[in-house]
Amino acid sequence: MTKQEIVNRLLELPGQIASVEYTVLEADRQVVLAKEFLQQKEDDLLLGNVIDGKNAEIRAAQMRQHTEYERQNLDNAELHLKNNVTRLVRLRDEFKALQAVASLLQGGAA
Questions:
Q1: Cα–Cα distance between 16 and 93 in angstroms, integer?
Q2: Which of 5, 17, 67, 89 is most buried, judged by most C-beta within 10 A?
Q3: Helix boundaries (H) for the chain
Q4: pTM above 0.90, yes or no
């Protein structure tokens, strides 16, 4: 990378980081909502006497069977959050590395 490319990238990164931070917050909100929907479905199943197994293992299996869609939504939301957090960490790491390189270049120019 040339000095100008480093400067340009350093100027771009804060905006990209801010954008991904917003995406992480939104992804986290989606995880919270998915958990709430799953909990509501489980509550409805329990209160509606749909879950009627004779032991805990059978009741748990029935619950999983009846909440497959909600669990899949939660899994997807959690994966989306993890991917965005990883992206954010990479951008922050790149920013720190470029700051270090810029600092070294500035010291070498003096």
A1: 13
A2: 67
A3: 3-47, 56-66, 68-109
A4: no
Q: Is residue 33 part of a domain?
A: yes
Counts of helices then strands in the chain (DSSP H, E): 3, 0
Count of domains observed in the chain = 1
% residues pLDDT > 90 (the chain): 92
Q: Do the domain assignments include residue 106?
A: no
Residue 107 lies in a domain: no
Report the SS3 class of residue 54: coil
Q: Is there a contact between 54 and 75 (Cβ–Cβ < 8 Å)? A: no
Residue 56 token pair: 């805990």
